[in-house]
Every structure is written in C-alpha cells, then in structure tokens.
Amino acid sequence: MNGIFGAKGESVKELGNAKYIKATESAPSYSLYDPLPRFRREIEIDEDVVSAEIIVQSPSFAQFFINGENITDDIFISALSDYRKILWYNTYDVTSLVKKGKNAFAVMCGNGFLNESLVTTWHFEDATWRDAPQFILALKVNGKIVLVSDKNWKTDRENTHITFSHIRGGEFVDMRKKDESWKKIGFDDSKWQTAIERSIPYDAKLMPLDCQPVREVEKLAPKKIVKTEKGYLVDFGLNTSGYVQLALQEKAGNEITLKFGEEVSENGEINHLQNDSDYFYPGQPPYHICKVIASGKKDVFKPCFTYFGFRYLVVEGMENALKPEDVCAIFTHQDVKRTASFNCGNDVINYIYTAGMRSCYSNMFWCMTDCPTREKMGWMNDAQATCEHALINFDMRKLYKKWFEDIKAGMREDGALTGVIPSPDWGYNWGPVCDCMLYELPYRFYLYTGDDEMLKSGIEYFDRYIGYLEKSLKEGYDFILGDWLGYGSNPNVPKIFIWEFYLIKAYTVTAFAYERAGKDSSKHLETLAKLRKEFIAKYIQADGRCTITDQTSVAIVIMNGLYTDKDAVCNQLASLVEEGGPVLKTGMVGVQYIYD
Predict the structure, then answer these.
(1) Is 17 within 8 Å of 149 (Cβ atoms)?
(2) Which ranges in 305-373 belong to alpha helices (H)?
(3) pLDDT at residue 12 tops 80
(4) Which of 89, 144, 175, 320 pairs with 464 at a CA distance of 20 to 30 A?
C-alpha cells in the first residue's frame, strides 16, 4: 500500500510511505508486568541541514527523541480521538536537532486509551480500536522525506525501565534499568527485534492538529510534609491535575510507592471516596499509584504516560527522609491562555473563582473531561454545563474546534451520540443532557467569537440528531440523564421535561445555523413554533406559573421564553429560592440558567 490514506483514500503526502509500527502483533493482555516498547533507528544524512521537520502520530501516546533530545515540550502526544475515525498528527520543526552525518531517532510508546487493558465499567478494554502501542513518523530534511517509520526500525520491550503504565492506573518503573544511551548514536541494538508494520485502516482520517498541546505548566512546592507510620504525607495545598517529580537516593532494589488523592483520612491514608471501587474498577487494579524501584544512585522520577487528580501524595518505602526540595507537583493541562480575570474584596469569593479556574484547567485534556481522577473522559453533560464559563475565561477556540470534529465523527448514521466523546461505542443511552453539546458548543462559540464555521459545518449533524431524538421520544425511550445532581437526576424535575426542552433547543440552534449558512430555515422555524406552543400548554398553568415547581424548571422557562406571563414565573422562582434557604438545588442542566 502506498502512502497513508484518510477519508475517501485521500493521501497524506507528508507521510510518504510511512507505516504505523509496533512491538507486538496484538495488544498485550492486562498484567502488572507490561513493559512499554521502545523503538530506534539510525540514518546518515549526507547534506547540510537547512531545514528539518518531523510529522508524528501515536494513538497510544509517545515521546520522540532525536540524538538523545526530546523533540518537544508537549506531552501526551497524540491527541485523543476515536482512532477508527480520526488520527490527529503533529508537525514539529527539528532543524536544531538534526545534523549532517549520523543521526539517532528514538521513540517510547505508552498505552494511552488505545490499549486500555485493565477492566473498567466503561469497557475501553473491549474497544474495537484496541491494539499494541504504536506510532507513525516521517522526517523531512531540506524538503525531502529521508526517514519514515517502517520495518527497518528496531524495537525492544523487555529492557524498558517502565514496566507498567496505564492512563487511569499509574506507572511502575525500575530505575536500575534506566539508560539514556538507547536514544543516542552508536547504541548496540543488535539484540532488539524487528518492528512490526500495521496495515492502515482506510476509514481512519489522518488530520493535522491545530490545537494547544498538553504541557507541564506549573510546579507546586509542598505546603506541608508530615511523617506517618508508613511514610510521608505531602500536602500541596490545592487540587490539581498532573503528577509529581521526586528525587531520591535509596538502596538498589528498594521499592517506593507513591499514592495520589484529593482527600486523606484522619490516619493519613489516601481516601478515594470509592472512586476506585469494584463498580468502576472490577478486580481492583492499581489506582492512582506509582511504584519506583531504586537504583542505588540518585534517581529522579516522574511518570511519562499517566496523570492524576490530587492534592495529597503519600510516599511509602523510603528509608531516607523526604525533604521539601526533593518533591514537587507538576500541573499538567492543555496550554490554553486565560482571557479573563476576576478579583473582589471577598476572599471566599476569590477562592471560589480561582478554584473554578483550576478545575477547568484540570479537565483540559484533548477535550473537556469530567475529572482528572476516576474517568478522565470527555463527558458532554459536564462540558455543556460549563461551555459558556470556559469561553468567558479561556481562549477555547482551537481546543473546541478540535473537539467538535471528534463529536461529529462520533455520531452514528441514525444520529445517535455517545455521552462521552471520544468513545469506543460505549454510552449511547445517556441522552440529550449529554448529546446537546452538539448544539451548545457551536452556538456559544459563535456568540463569544463571531465565528459561525461550526454552526454551518454542523447542519447535517444537527438534522440527524433531531431525527434521532424525535424518534426516541416518540417511542418512549428512557435516557439515563435528567437534571443530573451527581448522584442521580433531580427527582423534582421529570426527565421528559428536560428532554423536550432540549428538542426545542436543538431546533432553535439548527434554524439559526440554516440562517447563518444562507439556507431556508422555514420548516425548522415552523416546527419550532409548534414545539414551543405544545411545551407551554403542557408545563404552564392558567395563572402563568410553571407546573413543575423547582428551581431548574422555572429558570429554564424564564431564560428560554417558554412562558405566558413573565412576572408570574419570575415571582415563582423568587419564592422557590427564598424557600430553599436559599440553597442552590439545581442539577447541571438548571445551573446553566439559575444565575442569569
């Protein structure tokens, strides 16, 4: 097969005859000993290097090195996607790293979500895309392709110092095996294996990534270190996403355990609040744990292909004292710039705002995730509830455009969407509380940026989902989510109220998209008027008040003009807030409307 093919056989010429390569034919089964594969190749360049660029893509995450140097500060390469549909690739200028004469190229692959072998409730272990860790690469020097990934590369697993690595579980390393020489010129790889080429799926489209990378953005010193019976409890003072860097010098073979968590019990143990329960992780595999086997020399550890949500670190197994200068937390997230700030005279309000910003950052991982802890997945219900917040405070343009392509790619022919994007066909039954991010994102994006590209490119998908939702409601399909409270849907607001409201929202945005595209929206507007009339007749009483007496329902009808008497529903909401304490009683649907 010549070249790499995208949709409809479109060749990505920059990759030439490159192939995806891997160390094993199939994805390794789950094991606590599952070394990560390394790959290397040396070539001779016979001319002065005026320019050099490298194109890389790894659905399992990878690190790329030239002559011993990492080609980029970006981490977790490449971007998440449904690997059967889209493969996002990166291009880097490596002119400063490539030289005339011999050059060594080295790659370390993780597992990422491509080979999620541990069993979870989300069934990524059964993903049809699941395969062994792999990558594709092409190097151009002075405008000509001089190197591609193929069976001429060598690979090794058994001698890798990273012996276990899972995006949700953690990473185990044996520092006695750590050796940087394999990345450099002259390393003896004669005992390494020949890399295995992977056939290219015709239905996967390789797409250039124009999106901010995930990076190590901030280092946090410990606020407190407490000696405990088992080791040391380190408090970094606030919740963050990422990992730690730990310097230690222990006897060769000593095993040091690092446990990460957002809360601790009174005895100084990490309390995961059942996030690691058998329901989510059957069989109880490692969760938020790193293990380091000391080399006997001064070791510096930080994980390569996993990250955590944590404030606390528990270190067990060290014989020497843990000093503050030996450990720091590294805040990792999409390197998106802030576009707004807030400050007032109330320290509590300032803290809440700052916590909100950190929480948003902690969930920027190639999409908007629900958490950096238990799941690390692109739940669209969380993202829909916070879309406007993100657009107000951050430059979300590139990240949201990337994710919108993933959302469109995740739609079935009948219009159904999974509640999580990207997803290995898991979660088609969560409903419009998730799915209508399809409409919320391009609409809010237009309001805050003036860019209507998403609205226009989404029209086909808007119509397909409307058809799916109408059919589902007609047939009485019971979606999972209503006004989700985090432990169940709001019992005071019938789910059907929420779903019928989202159908109105879908028609509203679709009609607007037709108008922006210069298309006839009359049929959509006609249906929209009919739906609004039926909704008002069903949920608004003769006295103008909403039949469903809850903060969520009344806020929704006010903010979307679904009433006959505005004063009546406004007074109704005021009474509900006063009667409530006042306590916020909305779920993630109502919270988008209650404050306005």
Answers:
(1) no
(2) 347-362
(3) no
(4) 89
